[in-house]
Amino acid sequence: MSAAAAPEQQTYEFQAEVQRLLEILIHSVYSSKDVFIRELVSNAADALEKVRFETVRGESLLEDDRELGIWIETEGADSADDEGGDDAADDADEKASEPKRLIITDNGIGMTEEEVRDNLGTIARSGAVAFLEQLKKKDSDKDLNLIGQFGIGFYSVFMVANRVTLTTRSAHPDAHAVVWESDGLGSYTVRPAEGDVPRGTRIEIELKDEEDRFASEHTISEAIRTYSNFVAFPVHLGGEVKNKTKAIWREQPSNVTEEEYAEFSKFLTYDSGAPLHKLHLVTDSPWQFSALLFTPSTDPESMGFGEGEVSLQLYVKRVLIDGSNRDLLPPYLRFLKGVVESEDLPLNVSRETLQENRVLMKIREILTRKVLSELTEMGKKDEDRYLEIWDKFGRILKEGYHDFANREKIHELLRFATSQGERLTGLESYVERMPESQKAIYYFTGASRDALDGEPRLELLRKRGVEVLYLFDIADEVVLGSVNRYKEKDILSADMVKLEDLEGVGDASEDKKDEGEQKEARETAGPLLERFCELLAERVTEVRFSDRLIDSPACLVNPDGSTPHIEKIMRLMNKESELPKRVLEINATHPMIESLAALANKDKNDPFIATACEQLFEGALLTDGYLTDPHQLVTRMHEVLTEAASLKKG
Ligand code: ADP
Ligand code: MG
Q: Which residue of 15, 43, 106, 144 sits with most ligand 1 atoms within 8 Å of its CB, as the best mutation to test the pocket?
């Protein structure tokens, strides 16, 4: 505490994070500084909502005879515009040296002295610090625009202000009015207000010279139109109400224009692009409720601010009960933003849990079902747009795989990469493309399209022209595993495929040497197979001839009956875990195997066979990402190359 001019005035340092933030804001070259108007107006609106809320709860508040509202006044610029003629020039010069001002007043809930110091001196929300870091790194317009979402909107006023004087009187009857003042340079003062102060908050902004356009009514009214058109309370400026104050979610959808939806979405979601989808529901049975939900065009989670939560505005009987309700949608639909209102909920609903309130639970069910079926519909009728949603939010949406009640709808929404081209596919269209004789849906996990296009274990399916879903994300394997069966088709990892499963599928003539030749090759390679078994005894469950390999000599597959995705998850969770033992398959008709077989028939113990066996085994581990130490493989390869080179040289 430091000594101050008036005895009752106290000076306080801003919290360190706030100081950092202010420093960034004061020096910001951000081009849309007018967002500070949105932030101050939205704070005023929040304060007014709180008055409504406390009033319906029967709290006794300090009265105010004006209707609930926001008033904006400007001082300086507009009057100077009117000045004309030489006589006025001196006068105008004098005026110009006086700072221009903008004043925003509301008759909302106000703040007590303690609240002022808590709210306007510290940063409460944890995401704010990460946001700050981001700002500092990039200083991009898009990021600053999101400032309001991190509980630090108020400070944006310092982008344009030299000094801010905020006078506030809490609506709680015994509170006294206080004045908070700061130049944003590290500290602020708090002192008791003089005279009779009405309920609410008045913010006087002394504008920086270079930002004096914000003392122009025209600029302010533009900003209100852009950002605050749907604020629920009248915003007065120059004797007029500048905003619509229309609660469009309560309207019948037929009464709302597309433009209004787009504007409202911007207002609500901070998303500058047009929403990718909207759901507007107004219903009276079995309960009265209305909802307006948007799928925004950008994913805030992708900006590195961590995982979000469901957050919808909940109104009950026209009162905002909860500005960020978590119960109205399941977490996997948290990318939706919007408003829900009901006459049939109690005003204290936010103190009840979801299970306690049947109506809330029902609304959630209805909204969830409706959103999922609209998205499914879109997936069929406007696939490009749906793929855009999937691209941005598929990661979140597929978390819904364990929502048992809606599983079928969610299955329709899944999209995967496929061997059949660059475009993502859903299960339904995969099944539509399937030849009738194909019994299962096949997928395979790999690092990339290139890796899977060249994957030996897919050779047979590839030759037969069977489509394989390409999974690049291990989560996809879990999701698909949970689908289990789709339209009576099994969903199988492609390395589980057996030759007999593919009877009648595609053209079999290409993929195998004729049976006689195959049989003969396997007979010849018998001793080689035995030798491989001896060499790898401890490391594989089995060595066998392969039906699936065509162009490659060997591969590793899971033993029959194992469920590969579970095994991988276990490995992910427990990094120490042992390598799973698998089956080594060899291709008897591959030239390399044929030569090794001939060698084995001469001398089973030829050391070159052991070298080749190790190399094939470790090579297969390597392509699967299971080889922990590649040194031996590389050394062995060098030995083989040395030998081969000397042979070539002749
Ligand atoms: P947020 O609005 O996200 O909480 P802000 O930085 O915009 O973050 O505001 C911080 C807090 O200051 C608000 O939560 C509110 O408690 C208080 N506040 C700001 N402006 C007003 C106002 N006009 N009336 C009452 N309280 C206000
Ligand atoms: Mg705010």
A: 43
Q: Does domain 414-502 fall into CATH 3.40.50.300?
A: no
Kind and range of the H or E run holding 322: strand 319-325
Return the CATH superfamily for domain 519-649: Heat shock protein 90, C-terminal domain (1.20.120.790)
- Å from CA of 12 to ligand 1 middle: 18
Which atom of ligand 1 lies closest to the CA of 200? 24
Q: How many whole angstroms from 116 Cα to the centroid of ligand 1?
A: 9
pLDDT over threshold 50, residue 80: no
- Best residue among 41, 46, 109 to mutate for probing ligand 1's pocket (most ligand atoms within 8 Å of CB) is 46
pLDDT digits (tens, 9 = 90+) for 224-261: 988 888 899 999 999 999 998 889 999 999 999 999 99
587's tokens: 């291709």
Q: Is the pLDDT of residue 567 over 90?
A: no
User: Per mean pLDDT, which range of 72-86, 196-210, 626-640 is the poorest?
Assistant: 72-86
Q: Which has the minimum average pLDDT: 225-234, 520-529, 604-613?
A: 225-234
Rounded Cα distance between 76 and 96, Å, is 8
Q: Tell me the CB-side half-sphere exposure of residue 213, using CA atoms within 13 A.
A: 11
Could you tell me the residue ranges of all domains in the chain?
10-241, 248-387, 414-502, 519-649
Residue to mutate, 119, 202, 270, ligand 1, most ligand atoms under 8 Å from C-beta = 119
Decide which of 507 and 24 is more confident. 24
Indicate the helix (H) or strand (E) that contains 339.
Answer: strand 337-342
**Average pLDDT in the 612-623 region?**
93
Q: How far is the CA of 242 from the centre of ligand 1 (A)?
A: 22
Instruction: Tell me: pLDDT of 109 over 90.
Output: yes
| Residue whose CA lies nearest to ligand 1 atom number 9 | 154
Which atom of ligand 1 sits closest to the CA of residue 152? 6
**511-530: average pLDDT:** 87
Query: What pLDDT sits at residue 317?
Result: 86
What pTM was estimated for this model as a whole?
A: 0.82
Averaged pLDDT for residues 317-334: 92
CA-to-CA distance for 306 and 382, rounded, in angstroms? 30
Q: What are phi and psi of 125, to 5 degrees?
A: -85, 145
Of 289, 283, 292, 291, whose CA–CA distance to 265 is shortest? 292
Long-range CB pairs of 160-164, under 8 A, 24+ apart, other chains included: 160/33, 160/36, 160/205, 160/207, 160/208, 160/211, 160/214, 161/205, 161/206, 161/207, 161/208, 161/211, 162/99, 162/206, 162/207, 162/208, 163/205, 163/206, 164/203, 164/204, 164/205, 164/206
Q: Name the phi and psi angles at 514, rounded to 5.
A: -65, 160
Burial class (CB in 10 A: 0-12, 13-18, 19+), 569: middle
Rounded Cα distance, 469 and 169, in Å: 63
Q: Kindly list the distances between the CA atom of residue 150 and the CA atoms of 142, 433, 453, 582, in Å, as whole numbers in the listed order.
A: 14, 47, 44, 50
CATH number of 248-387: 1.10.10.10, 3.40.50.2300, 3.30.230.80, 2.60.40.10? 3.30.230.80
pLDDT tens digits along 413-461: 999 999 999 999 999 999 999 999 999 999 998 889 999 999 999 999 9
Which residues form ligand 1's pocket by a CB distance below 6 Å?
A: 39, 43-44, 46-47, 106, 108-111, 119-120, 151-154, 201
CATH architecture for residues 10-241:
2-Layer Sandwich (3.30)
Residue nearest to atom 27 of ligand 1 (CA): 43
